[in-house]
Write a structure and sequence with these properties.
Elements (H helix, E strand, L loop, with lengths): L9 H4 L3 H4 L12 H24 L24 E5 L2 E4 H9 L3 H8 L3 H20 L6 H26 L4 H10 L5 E11 L16 H16 L4 H8 L3 H4 L4 E6 L5 H9 L9 E3 L2 E12 L2 H26 L7 H4 L18
Antiparallel strand pairs: 1-2, 3-4, 3-6, 5-6
Helix pairs in contact: 3-6, 3-7, 7-13, 8-13
Amino acid sequence: MTGSPSARNMASCGPAMNFLMVGTGRNLVALRYHESVKFCTALLALSLTSSLFAQNTPVPQAPAVPPAAATPAKPSQPDKVILTIGTTKLTEAQYETLVDALPQQYQTYAHGAGKRQFAESLAQLIILSGEAEKRNLDKQPKVQEQLKFQRENLLAQAMFEDLQSGIKVDDAAVQQYYDAHKNEYESVKAKHILIRVKGAPMPGAEGKPELTDEQALAKAQEIRKKLVAGGDFAALAKTDSDDTGSAQQGGDLGEFRRGMMVPPFEQAAFSLKIGEISEPVKSPFGYHIIVVEEHKLKTLADVKPDIEKTMRPEMARKAVQDLRDKTNVQIDDEFFGPPTPVPGAPGTAAPQAK
């Protein structure tokens, strides 16, 4: 049966969850500086190794039988030579540094099940690189330009990471961010009884009559009267709730944050006092009777590390923009096209009303 507003019950609630629940992820935003730098680095790493990995690196397959118990990790030996290719020797520390510069999917592979195969591919890469130098391919103007760009790209990423690590986030700024985003740190634990209305975006129970809006409201009001008089919420949810996903748990929806429920349900749930029985709340699914069991708000101390982690990239981007503003940059509009207007930026005309 569908219709529960509980994320925990999503598997049992089917397609109606798509209507009652709303997306918790943020909308995609324009590619930020540090993300674009990482993208370039990943792109360059892939451009160097893609053909090798395509030929030499199989896609990891799930084991046919349960794996044996994991063996204890061996102590790190940073100076130990673990790979020799001709005259090139690679230590464990150098290997870790190299792997850390790769895209995440290759890092996981090179540190885990694909470690041996990765070493084989790396050996082939170094052999080809050495042969290219013997043939003076590194002296070709095109290759030199590409090497120069790779160096600048890696230095830019290192600089951005250095900016982030060196930033001291002001306590007042953290407090301001917390105050502006308190809703993100608020949650409630609630239960509900749903009386479905005809035409709701979920199928009704087989053999159960379709209720008009007036009939559903009247039934919800009747159930609320029973609850106010001392009726057992869990028992009534099991017998009367049209959200069978939560009804079997006595109407329990678990804990949820703002933004996870359709607006009418969310507004009611977050405004209720603990233990208070709501009036029937109308949503696209019908009428809900809601009881909140817990209402929590994480303190600033709880979330301060997360806030600082969120703020550092933005502050580093501002530092990058400050550097950009101090540097003479000229871009050929004829070749690259005109700059994209930034909404709200100085000199940007406001859209005219029609």
